Amino acid sequence: MNRQEIKNKLNSCCDKMRDDGLVPLQYIEQLSWLLFLKLFDDHEESKRIIDLNYQFVFEEKYRWKNWANKLTGEELKEFIERDLIPYLSNLSGTPQKAKIASIFKEIKNHMRSGYSLAEVIEIINGIDFENPEDTQVLSIAYEELLMFTASKGGGAGEFYTPRPIIRLMVKIIDPEIGEKILDPFCGSAGFLVETYKYLREKAKTLKEHKILQEQTFYGQELKPFPLIVGTLNAMLHGIESPNIIETNSFAEDLRSIPEDKKFDIILTNPPFGGEAARRSLATFAIKTSDTELAGLYLCMKKLKTGGRCAIVQPEGVLFRTSGAYLRVKKELLENYNLHTIISLPQGVFANVSPKGGPGPKTNLLFFEKGRPTKEIWYYEHKHPLGMVRTRYGRLVEKTYSKNDPIKDEHLEDCFKKWQKREISENSWIVKVEDIVKRDYDLSAKNPNKAKSVVYRKPEELLKSVLEKEKEIKKILGELKNLL
Known about the structure:
The protein is an alpha/beta fold. It has 2 domains: 3-146, Ferritin (Up-down Bundle); 154-437, Rossmann fold, CATH 3.40.50.150. The chain is 46% helix and 13% strand.
């Protein structure tokens, strides 16, 4: 099937679930676990064809083909709710079964009508996961659906990072075969997926492909909903058994992490706030209610010596210089080489901002563990159109938006200049001594930026003119009295 046909199937599923009363987050969850079960069964069928002794993970009764094709209506709904999901959530005995159990322990059927549910399953049955072309096209369509749902708000935006940003981070980190890669706030597994796509071109032997599949990608996620989304997304993109687990990353004891439990590479976008994440900071290693700062500190501690990290951070973490902010940034500069900070404008996260609007102003930080920072290369990214004139004639800086999202080509200049650590109008280098002098304020302050003319609003100009006219009349009156 081509991309449009697959997209139409997914949209048709969503339409039927929406008509059944489901909201976007519910139908993404419902679609994800149904697709997961179909994908899992098709993959197992492929393995049995190659190895006649292969043992299926699920009992025959619970394999997709033995219920999805045979039950309908209320009988189907009752089987899923009272039999299938309880069975899946209680699997045990092997790591794979335990992982499936963790995925399904809080999953539930949201659909009210068993007949509408059967119609959705019938559509999914038309997708052939044993056909690489169908799976590849589905992976693209599924990501597009995730982005669309994230743009609708309601919480989905918290686990979706714009893919051009991720791809730039992966290119700068430049992972190699054999390195263990972690995203401790996995979400939809975008970082793992893009890193896999980057590395699969480097894998030349069966051994290297096996390393990629089994010993490379690791993810941690707090909530069951993004856990199923991330697991399915990784599998659709070719990571057959992603090592993604449900766990609270902030609950980990960072004082005693064994070296073999640390990672060569960490790529991540920590949660920006969120009540669940904040509550989990009660026993965290540093006293802070800021999940972004806590995420940065966690990544520092989970890196191996010589390990590399790329992380998204909001502006506040960079400029705040008191308490935990000072402690973490001081340790970062003294024990890690923070070699690059890329400043992004507001609007980059507009497509996935759960609260709507332009989203937060963010930065990308890149550092390596094991040697102190000597200097930081900064790059200030702006919308390629630069300054634009409004309908009132004012010049303002163009920003990204939901209808004008950031694209890969917009970041080409940044990567090209980063390779040579080039100094230009939008890139510069700051010595660590200067950072220390300004109390560890890491925010981007471009010394090469031409001063822009600030045009006041028409109503402000009119008010100013009237006030000045009033003042002139007052002075003229005073002069008249003197004469």
